[in-house]
Design brief:
mainly alpha; 3 helices; elongated
């Protein structure tokens, strides 16, 4: 923001994007050795667990 003011500009919007890299990706050689569509196995397992929990809740509602 101070840089824009020093330049005589007005900052309209500012966004911070944070990317995290899991330890598994680092161990496997991220970024150079992993394909761009690689997914962390823990994230996949967590998503599968969430899907199962959702199905269990939906099924119990039907009873």
């Amino acid at each position: 923001m101070k840089q824009s003011e020093k330049s005589g500009l007005h900052l309209l919007d500012c966004q911070l994007t944070i990317h995290t890299v899991c330890h598994e990706a680092l161990r496997m050689g991220w970024p150079s050795l992993l394909s761009s569509n690689w997914s962390c196995p823990k994230a996949i397992a967590d998503a599968a667990h969430a899907d199962i929990a959702h199905l269990d809740i939906a099924h119990s509602d039907e009873e």
